[in-house]
Every structure is written in structure tokens, then in C-alpha cells.
Amino acid sequence: MSLGDPTAEVEQQLAECERLLYSQPADAEAGLRPLLTHARQIQDVELEVRCLVLLCGAMFLQAHYSQTVEYALVALDLSRDLELPSLEARCQNALGLAYDRMGQSDKALDALIASLELAQRHGDNEGRC
After folding, report:
1. Which end of the chain is more exposed for a tag (fewer CB within 10 A), N or C?
2. Out of the domains of life, which is the source (predicted)?
3. What is the rounded distance in angstroms from the CA atom of residue 56 to the CA atom of residue 92?
């Protein structure tokens, strides 16, 4: 994956990874890893969070629940630092789903409630799903 042009090309690649997420999560993961590296190299923390959130989805859909939690916790801290409630809600949602699959019902419920509350408080209808 070439990262020649900054913004437009990166946004296009990120959108392509998101498009692949549900049908081909392994391919989405493969596309997201260089984008995450790029985000970290250029110190674009918001892009890093967006990549991590999508990686959470890719890991979850491949039944890699521990990795989902790892990525979600990193993204959660960063989204809070940047005050990005929509992404914070998505991180909480990923945590809730992964914790549920891991049999950690209390943690799952706490995370899912936090996700819903954030989404409602900030009018994020996408995050409420």
C-alpha cells in the first residue's frame, strides 16, 4: 500500500479498509496495519485512533477477542485525550462486544452502557447501533 499523497490517499485507503471490514476482515486488517504505522510516523493521533477502531472490528470479526480489547484500550485512551466522543463510544462498544465473547459479562455490560451513554450525550446515532 503506497502512501504517496497525504490526506486524500490516506482517506481513500481508510475508506477501502472500512468497506472490506465485514466481508473480508483479514484483508481490512492487512490494509489497516500500514495505515496505523503511517499515522504513528507522522504523529497523527486522530488517524491512529480511527485505524485502531477499525482494527478492533477486524480483530473481532476474526474472533481475536484479546487483540480487540488491546486495540480498543489504546484507542480509548487516545480518543479521550483528543476529546473524540464518537470514537470513544466506538471503542467502548468494541470492548463490550469482545468482553461478552470472552465471558466477562460485567465488563461487557459496563462498556456497552458507557458506549450508549456517550453516543446519546453527543447525538451520535451511528454510535448508538
Report:
1. C
2. Bacteria
3. 11
Question: What pLDDT does 7 receive?
Answer: 82
Count the residues in the chain. 129
Q: Which three cell numbers stand for residue 33?
A: 496495519
pTM: 0.89
| Cα–Cα distance for residue pair 56/58, rounded to 1 Å | 5
What's phi and psi for 56, nearest 5 deg?
Answer: -55, -45
- The CATH superfamily assigned to 7-121 is Tetratricopeptide repeat domain (1.25.40.10)
pLDDT digits (tens, 9 = 90+) for 20-73: 999 999 999 999 999 999 999 999 999 999 999 999 999 999 999 999 999 999
CA dist 51 and 71 (Å) reads 10
What are the structural domain ranges in the chain? 7-121
